[in-house]
Amino acid sequence: MNISKNIRLYREERKLTQEQVADAVGVSFQAVSSWERGEYSPDIDKLIKLAELFDISLSALVEEREGIFTVKDSIYNWEHMKTFIKTTCKNLGLTDSLKAVEYATCAHEGQKRKKSEVPYIYHPLTLACHALAMGITEDDIIAACLLHDVVEDCGKTLDELPVSDDTRKLVGLLTHSKTTPSNRDSVMRAYFDAIATDPKACLIKCIDRCDNMTTIARGLSRERIYRTIRETEEYFPRLIAVIKDYLPYNNAAWLLRYQMDSMLDIYKRLM
Is 149 a catalytic site residue? Predict the structure, then answer.
């Protein structure tokens, strides 16, 4: 264990002074200084408060941070993914998807994935690649994978999208209005009720959730991770059931459920 080094590193990463940490935890700044020098170790109640302040798990605070693992912000180069999608869509004659890939790239230009330098376009490209890898080659599905966030996150309207009405319908189903703590439950219930009416929208939303779950440890606070776990367990079994009952997507339902349940189990154990 190297608690002293971890306290200093997490404090500096969050741009906090020793005085700010001391005020939040309820000790003097001299106590924080002594913790960071390794002269004393915080009591368990102070460790819990430090973990809450830094928004990390208790184990992350007390365990050795460096020299164990190497992590990557992304696995594939997004430009290579884009080339693969364009080539595949051209060969399959997916006209909506060819328009969508360029439109999404422009719409998301300059946006980054949470707490990273990964261009946001990596996310919709990943959804399209996942769908193609599962043998899904319907034009409206691939195009909606690419465009699913442009209305919600980029200030675009459905009428602006250079695609068919079928694709616009899917993007509309996958777009929800802004939420507040007071209305989130009602907005999300209505949102998932609407998605559940369409197997294609269910398929895209489940692929979207699987990809988002691969990054929540980096991009979300512990509170948001808990919320993601709860919402995944509440809403997504219904979507998986809709996909499973639609014969063309039966195999995809198995893969998506396996990936989703596996990641849920991992995060629960780590949390």
Answer: no
Task: Choose the catalytic residue: 52, 152, 198, 231.
Answer: 152
In the chain, DSSP finds a helix count (H) and a strand count (E) of 16, 0
The predicted model scores a pTM of 0.80
Annotated active-site residue 153? The verdict is yes
Q: Which domains does the chain have, with CATH numbers?
A: 3-62 (1.10.260.40), 78-270 (1.10.3210.10)
Give the burial class of 158: count Cβ atoms within 10 A of its Cβ; 0-12 exposed, 13-18 middle, 19 or more buried: middle
Catalytic residue among 39, 79, 109, 153: 153
- Dist. CA 41–CA 35, nearest whole Å: 6
Q: Give residue-wise pLDDT tens across range 214-271.
A: 888 776 777 888 899 999 999 999 999 999 999 999 999 999 999 999 999 988 887 7
N- to C-terminal Cα distance for the chain?
Answer: 19
The pairs formed by 68-74 with CB atoms below 8 angstroms and a separation of 24 or more are 73/113, 73/116, 73/117, 73/118, 73/218, 74/116, 74/118, 74/122
